[in-house]
Design goal:
Order of helices and strands: HHHHHHHHHHHH
Largest sheet: none
Shape: globular
Radius of gyration: 21 Å
Number of helices: 12
Number of strands: 0
Structural class: mainly alpha
Length: 283
């Protein structure tokens, strides 16, 4: 167990070195975040007018009767998943180029994602369907529904962990991509989890640092120093955004590295060969 954690930590550190070489990778999560905010804003009015928010909060009877609410919610999920998957595909495409010895640009990422629009749309349709079904289960019972939906959601996340690189590199449809993702996950189970743990630990530590100016700013505003307080809060928010962008990029780099080694039997460039071989040693 401790060896696995150490491996995950080392994989994370090497991913950070890759990110230093290709800082432009941060453009994709930034664009994804902006696009998701625009999607949310565009759906806020129809979600409110259809009664989706109220019906989903009031309980299963109102939610079940409000078909329009579920349709709007499904459309929101579909568009949101499409946006996220598209930019993640572009990011993974760039990461794969770097890990195979190339020097990617932002345009390379878009060139990787654009030919996969049909697959991305198909996957978004599947993901949106699963998302709505989990929401339905959650709405059936306050506590039991939440627990069941949470467990199913966790299983779904693990099952589909490698779907994006499969879509980008192999160009498979949504169902075949899930099957392929499961096959790759079986080989990288431990390393996938501990690498996420390593990245999560870094993100947690950086988030705590980013929260310090926000807390200090809030305190200063209470003492009457509004200008300084607002400035510190703004700095903290910017830092939190930066942490989120770095986290997304690191996750995609490690994901691409694990996929290349496990699915293609190639050594990802920029990762220590002994480390990767040790991580995937037969157990």
């Amino acid at each position: 167990m401790f060896q696995r954690i150490s491996m995950g930590w080392q994989l994370t550190k090497q991913a950070m070195r890759i990110l230093k070489l290709d800082k432009e990778l941060l453009v994709f999560p930034l664009l994804s975040g902006i696009a998701c905010l625009l999607v949310l804003a565009s759906f806020a009015v129809p979600l409110f007018l259809s009664g989706a928010l109220d019906s989903l909060e009031d309980g299963q009877e109102n939610a079940a009767q409000n078909v329009l609410a579920w349709l709007v919610l499904f459309a929101f999920y579909f568009v949101n998943y499409f946006v996220i998957t598209f930019f993640n595909s572009a990011l993974v495409g760039c990461a794969v180029i770097r890990l195979k010895g190339g020097d990617p640009t932002v345009s390379d990422g878009f060139h990787s994602a654009l030919p996969r629009l049909p697959q991305i749309a198909g996957w978004s349709l599947v993901a949106a369907t699963v998302g709505v079904l989990l929401k339905v289960i959650e709405s059936r019972s306050e506590r039991v529904g939440e627990i069941v939906a949470g467990l199913l959601g966790m299983a779904w996340s693990i099952t589909t962990f490698f779907v994006v690189p499969v879509l980008v590199i192999e160009g498979l449809g949504p169902i075949d991509s899930v099957k392929r993702s499961v096959a790759v996950m079986r080989k990288t189970w431990g390393e996938s989890l501990v690498s996420n743990w390593g990245i999560g630990l870094i993100v947690f530590a950086l988030s705590l640092v980013a929260m310090l100016p926000i807390l200090a700013g809030g305190y200063l505003m209470n003492t009457g120093l509004n200008v300084v307080g607002i400035a510190l809060i703004a700095v903290g928010v910017v830092l939190l955004i930066a942490v989120a962008l770095i986290s997304s990029a690191l996750n995609s780099i490690v994901l691409a590295a694990l996929y290349i080694y496990a699915a293609e039997d190639q050594m990802p460039d920029g990762f220590d060969s002994q480390l990767v071989q040790g991580a995937f040693a037969q157990r």
